[in-house]
Amino acid sequence: DAGVTQSPTHLIKTRGQQVTLRCSPISGHKSVSWYQQVLGQGPQFIFQYYEKEERGRGNFPDRFSARQFPNYSSELNVNALLLGDSALYLCASSPGQGAIYNEQFFGPGTRLTVL
Amino acid sequence: AQSVTQLGSHVSVSEGALVLLRCNYSSSVPPYLFWYVQYPNQGLQLLLKYTTGATLVKGINGFEAEFKKSETSFHLTKPSAHMSDAAEYFCAVSRDSGTYKYIFGTGTRLKVLA
Questions:
Q1: Contact criterion met (CB < 8 Å) for A106 and B36
Q2: Sign of CA dihedral A38, A43, A46, A51
């Protein structure tokens, strides 16, 4: 079975630009979460979506937004890029909500570099 | 609020030696605890998890961890290190609270010496 897939693998943008990152969850998984991992740190929670609704938001500015589509894939958008947005962006999926579904499966990430 | 502390950002062990990576958590409710491994330029792979039940949890690649409520700890161990264990390890805490996010520690980079 295919795991979580993310595209693109790498991305280079300049300050002020906008970027869209994409994630396809494991087949049958309805929940998608996004994390930002800055070099040398642990992943930081950005968003969680379940059944196309936002179910959680981390401490990130409004420049960050996301959505989930009917097929449960997801996009993360970041506007007005700053140098500090350079990071590995990880997508994770899980089957649903509820304690037994608490395990998340991570994709390989998208490496974003802002110049 | 939940939090995770990983003591030691870098740990070096000799091949064949015991691996011990430390994780302490803070949570107002019984936590769910996870250890993930990250190899260079890759995503996170689950090593093991504790939700309920037996406090000694066995994972993949010979790793295990013990949940100690009294010490608020969930240290990761492996009896004999292998060169392929060199990677970054993250401890995470989560709880069924409506938002299924993980709180990650800052990570421990494990180096295995030949």
A1: yes
A2: positive
Estimate to the nearest angstrom the gap between the alpha carbon of A1 and the chain centroid: 21
Mean pLDDT value of segment B50-57? 88
A8 preceded by cis ω (within 30°)? Answer: yes
Whether B87 contacts B107, CB under 8 Å: no
Q: Between A42, A103, A108, which is nearest B104 by CB?
A: A42
Query: What's the gap in Å between the CA of B97 and the closest CA on chain A?
Result: 9
Coil, strand or helix: which one is B52?
Answer: coil
For residue B96, give the 3-state DSSP assignment. coil
Residue B43's pLDDT is what? 86
Task: Give the DSSP letter of residue A40.
Answer: T
Residue B100's pLDDT band, with cuts at 50, 70 and 90, is: low
Which residues of chain A make contact with B92, given a CB cutoff of 8 A?
42
Partner B contacted by A8 (CB < 8 A): no
Say whether B106 and A43 touch across the interface (CB within 8 A). no
Relative to beta strand B24-26, strand B19-21 is unpaired
* CB distance B59 to B35 below 8 Å: yes
CB contact under 8 A, B101 and A105: no
Q: In this predicted model, what pLDDT tens digit does every residue of A14-73 receive, in sequence order?
A: 999 999 999 999 999 999 999 999 988 899 999 999 889 998 889 999 999 999 999 999
Which uninterrupted H or E stretch holds B5? strand B3-5
Neighbours of A2 (CB within 10 A): 8
